[in-house]
């Protein structure tokens, strides 16, 4: 399987600084997106620490032979990497007054042939477009999701809830954190979207799906998602990573026409 990637982040219309962070290691096919939180500038410190650490450490492990690892071994490597990143953020938050209380949600992916492992902490999400089927394949670690699961509120009512952003897990908040990891089989033409809640809170799933189904390059689709979130208010930072799977590369002539070359 061949993969194409594109990442974009935007401050939005309301926030003065961008506390989101994205990182791609295309050689080792590691994608990381983090949505920071905390005091002045602390959120962006936490998210940058997370993406930088995970890209470097997991990329190094994969480059040194991890590409031959089993799914179970790869999952364990992801968990160890997240645990180390969490401790680094937690220690920084507790040794520097200006970073007190900082933390970050995170979603990450590792693609290997016909499989991908998706890990997440908090409410940063991963969606998959497969044919005409658009599905959220991560489940938010949030108070709102717990209320939905308990039958206290419907998914429709949740769209208008005032406590959407109360997460139940985040990196750096406690000395340990649990990464949820799931393995999926990748099929030809699958399109994976990793995003912060600055996108998912602003655009309903059907609008996100319509943009992804439409024509255009990954860059054009990412820009359309961000423009859509900003047009709906842009109340938060907006970050997206797109990963497109293909069984074989596009013919050069077609690719050139798509890129306007």
What does this structure look like?
This protein has 261 residues and is α+β, with helices and mostly antiparallel strands. It has helices at residues 42-63, 71-95, 143-149, 155-158, 197-200, 205-213, 218-231, 252-258, and strands spanning 2-10, 20-25, 30-37, 103-112, 115-121, 125-130, 133-136, 180-185, 191-195, 238-246. The strands form 2 sheets. It has a 5-stranded antiparallel β-sheet with strand order 1-10-9-6-7. Strands 2-3-4-5-8 form a 5-stranded antiparallel β-sheet, covered by helices on one side.
The number of helices is 8
Strand content: 25-35%
Shape: globular
Radius of gyration based on Cα positions:
18 Å
**Percentage of residues assigned to helices:** 25-40%
Strand sequence of the main sheet, in spatial order? 1-10-9-6-7
* Sequence of secondary-structure elements: EEEHHEEEEHHEEHHHEH
Which sheet architecture does the biggest sheet show?
5 strands, antiparallel
Uncertain stretches of 5 or more adjacent residues: 254-261
Structure summary:
With 261 residues, this protein is α+β, with helices and mostly antiparallel strands. The chain has helices at residues 42-63, 71-95, 143-149, 155-158, 197-200, 205-213, 218-231, 252-258, and strands spanning 2-10, 20-25, 30-37, 103-112, 115-121, 125-130, 133-136, 180-185, 191-195, 238-246. The model is unreliable at 254-261 (pLDDT under 50).
Question: Top keywords for this entry?
Answer:
single chain, 261 residues, alpha+beta, 5-stranded antiparallel β-sheet, 8 helices, 10 strands, 35% helix, globular
Write the SSE topology.
Layout: E1 2-10, E2 20-25, E3 30-37, H1 42-63, H2 71-95, E4 103-112, E5 115-121, E6 125-130, E7 133-136, H3 143-149, H4 155-158, E8 180-185, E9 191-195, H5 197-200, H6 205-213, H7 218-231, E10 238-246, H8 252-258
Antiparallel strand pairs: 1-10, 2-3, 3-4, 4-5, 5-8, 6-7, 6-9, 9-10
Helix pairs in contact: 1-2
